[in-house]
Amino acid sequence: MKRRSVGLLVAAAMVVPTIVAVPAEAHGDHSDKRVVGYYTNWSGYARNYLVSDLVKTGAAARLTQINYAFGFVDAQGNCIPSDAWADYQRPFTAEQSVNGQADQPGQVLNGNLNQFKELKKMYPKLRISISLGGWTGSAHFSDAALTPASRAAHVKSCLDMWLKGNLPGLPAGAAKGIFDGVDLDWEWPASEGNPGNVIRPEDKQNFTALVHEYRKQLDKLSGRPGKYNLTAFLPANPTMIDKGFEVRKLFKDLTFGTTQGYDYHGPWETLTNQQSAIDGPKGDPTTPEFSSQVTIDAYLSRGAPRDQLVMGVPFYSHGWTGVTNANHGLFQPSTGPAPATYEAGTEDYGLLKAHLSDYTVYRDNRAGFAWLFDGTTFWTWDDPVEMARKAKYISHRDLGGAMIWSLDGDSNGELISALHRNLR
């Protein structure tokens, strides 16, 4: 994606203070804004960021909803787990668990789902949705959404597995009551996503029909309209919006929609740039402009209600290396993605912060973004200052709240604290 507007550069060597996790009872309900965070089923592997860390960092106390990523859709249109071990088989020790009690041999439900069950006892207002699809799990959405019969069968399969709790290999209803809704992450209707995804021009109308089928079956299951949350992850690119989404119709059935507020630019391009600017920066040589302002305006102008529009924010950075040492590294050619811990060109906030002293922080206070540069390596930079800026923008525009990708990037809770504190 790409972008542009006006900018004022401020350079500063910066030390970000560590924020100690604050108990849940210390947080008042000072805002009616949603704070939605994605927790992934791979967070507990290399990152070792467990569900219990949501408590330890104070994240759980600041969240209104967790989206658990991801459940997949198979070639027949049925819901399937993407990682059964992480989801409901992995046993946790007392030290690793939310409630301080170890999973026992022969226990029916283990894994992240059992930890979520305990988390909801601790935070009864917290809602959890199963997120379906994602970048690597959206290959068969188009087939599932193709006909009234395929849509009905797909939705029935997904509600049976995730809301009724009928997981493969477990007793019927073993995971019932853990999820409070469904989050649809079809990436993307009628537009190219991961190579190999099925794409059809009629995906646009079929996605609307699929969302309506979800709402219909969710309301029937609950016996009370609107009891279960139904949300969707929506693209930033206005061209993709118009190709794949009937915005006004969708929001009639959605509880809310979350916008892609990041990946406007990244190391798949050779030129350094911002990835989550509020407005487009002056001097951006790329077109068309990509920014949160462009995205939010696109949805509002197409009929999305403000209070149902939740803006995405990143807890990670994109980076380039071999960058020309000019303009503080911004809008400069590179030789490729910067080396990183898990994936070249992408680094968690907490990991990059540990090397902050190696860089100078630059801020564009008019366009609303920051970056790091050391003369050869460039990283986008969403720190507490930028999280506060984004929260104030969300509040100023009276949007429905903020969505985080993803919670494991904020290993000590300082980003979500800044975000939560500035939402009004």
UniProtKB/TrEMBL annotation:
GO terms for biological process: carbohydrate metabolic process; chitin catabolic process. Its EC number is 3.2.1.14. Keywords: Carbohydrate metabolism, Chitin degradation, Glycosidase, Hydrolase, Polysaccharide degradation, Signal. It catalyses: Random endo-hydrolysis of N-acetyl-beta-D-glucosaminide (1->4)-beta-linkages in chitin and chitodextrins. Coiled coil: none annotated. It comes from the Bacteria. It is an enzyme of class 3 (hydrolase). Residues 33-424 form the GH18 domain. Pfam families: Glyco_hydro_18. PROSITE patterns: GH18_1 (PS01095), GH18_2 (PS51910). Residues 1-26 form the signal peptide. InterPro entries: Chitinase_II/V-like_cat, Chitinase_insertion_sf, GH, Glyco_hydro18_cat, Glyco_hydro_18_chit_AS, Glycosyl_Hydrlase_18. GO terms for molecular function: chitin binding; endochitinase activity. Belongs to the glycosyl hydrolase 18 family. This is chitinase. It comes from Kribbella pratensis.
